[in-house]
Specification:
This protein has 391 residues and is an alpha/beta fold. It is 43% helix and 17% strand. The chain binds pyridoxal-5'-phosphate.
Length: 391
């Protein structure tokens, strides 16, 4: 009998012929700045573990203690029996950190975005969204069935025109705080002003700003001094925080509504206690070890200057996410493979994660890279970049 999924093989072969059939790289051991992937020791420039918290002793100890005293699973969704004391403590902690009335934790940043947009909007409403917003925002927008209007990247005047076109229903203006593939920062003060003028709900996804921007890593709202003007702040616990999860911070009524109507919250099991315990410990580290964030930024400056001096096109990034622009998908993947063979892991990113013709390597330095790691990585980038015809 013919395999009804045979068309997938055909599509995979097509990706193969375009040089885009990439394989998963397997990490042996810990997520460290120099780590062993596919059996090769490489300088790791592709992790979101900005502050090195994924292996921080305080987070490990908190997680170990939670396993010992509370077990490994939460047993149910939050609304049945899966709300443990530490879930509530973590939410209280996040709200205090973000200076909002309340917060709610979801299983991931992805489910937080998808869940909140779908819960607060319906068919009669409109979403005004930056074209480079994260996929989870786009999926949430689709799930809500609201109309979706997309404005060109960071184009405040275009967002203004789109908002003016909406004559009925609720309006939600959404932006990433830091754009995940380009590393630039949203024009949040101007967007807040727009939202206020048009009576729109303002939402920011700070997945890449949490732990990176603002006082002690409080995110873009704090960075720009916009407390009280962003109605929905989404963050992740999976990147700088080092563990896993996502959250929404906002008003008491928003959070209560999400406890009642946030579908991932209602229909998917809550975090094991080890995850919530590790996250709680991470917020202590953010408050007590600000030197990690300082080191992240000094490493970022060192690495960007080096890439620029070598002659790479590094786009318009303002944060530790530094794209090295290549253009064609196949060339980006070949460059990435050659770098890996020479000792640097810098993942190639192509369509559909970024637009056609804008393929790149996406690099992220962390607080835990040494000067020596970065200088070596720069030397390898330059050598392989020349050999590959990128420079
Ligand atoms: C990574 C990311 C997410 C998803 O967060 P997870 O916790 O990994 O699910 C959401 N939004 C943006 C902008 C991201 O970069």
């Amino acid at each position: 009998m013919a395999d009804p999924l045979a068309y997938l093989d055909q599509q995979l072969r097509q990706l193969e012929s375009q040089g885009l059939r990439t394989r998963l790289r397997v990490l042996d051991g810990e997520q460290l700045p120099v780590a062993v992937f596919d059996g090769r020791r490489v300088i790791n420039l592709s992790s979101n573990n900005y502050l090195g918290l994924a292996t921080h002793p305080a987070l490990r100890a908190a997680a170990e203690k939670a396993v010992r005293t509370l077990g490994v699973g939460s047993g149910a969704v939050r609304t049945i029996t899966g709300t443990m004391r530490s879930h509530v403590e973590l939410e209280t902690r996040i709200a205090r950190f973000k200076q909002t009335e309340a917060a709610i934790v979801f299983q991931s940043g992805f489910t937080a975005n998808a869940g909140v947009v779908a819960a607060v909007l319906g068919r009669e409403d409109t979403i005004i969204s930056d074209e480079l917003n994260h996929a989870s925002i786009i999926d949430g927008a689709r799930l809500s069935r609201a109309a979706i209007k997309v404005f060109p990247h960071r184009d405040v005047a275009a967002a203004d025109r789109l908002l003016a076109e909406v004559t009925s229903g609720h309006k939600l203006l959404i932006t990433d705080g830091v754009f995940s593939m380009d590393g630039d920062i949203a024009p949040l003060p101007a967007l807040c002003e727009l939202a206020e003028r048009h009576g729109a709900i303002m939402m920011v996804d700070d997945a890449h700003a949490s732990g990176v921007l603002g006082r002690n890593g409080r995110g873009t709202v704090d960075h720009f001094g916009l407390h009280g003007r962003v109605h929905i702040q989404v963050g992740t616990l999976s990147k700088a925080i080092g563990a896993l999860g996502g959250y929404i911070a906002g008003s008491q009524s928003l959070i209560e509504w999400l406890q009642l109507r946030g579908r991932p919250f209602l229909f998917s099991t809550s975090h094991p206690p080890a995850v919530t315990a590790a996250c709680l410990a991470a917020f202590d580290v953010l408050e007590n070890e600000p030197e990690r964030i300082e080191r992240l930024w000094s490493n970022t400056r060192r690495f960007k200057l080096g890439l620029q001096a070598a002659g790479f096109n590094i786009g318009a990034s303002e944060t530790p996410i530094t794209p090295v622009m290549v253009g064609e998908g196949r060339r980006a993947m070949e460059f990435s493979r050659a770098l890996f063979d020479a000792g640097v892991l810098a993942t190639g990113i192509a369509f559909p994660t970024v637009p056609e013709g804008k393929a790149r390597l996406r690099t992220i330095v962390t607080a835990t890279h040494t000067d020596d790691d970065l200088d070596k990585a720069l030397e390898i980038f330059q050598r392989v970049g020349k050999a590959q015809g990128i420079l």
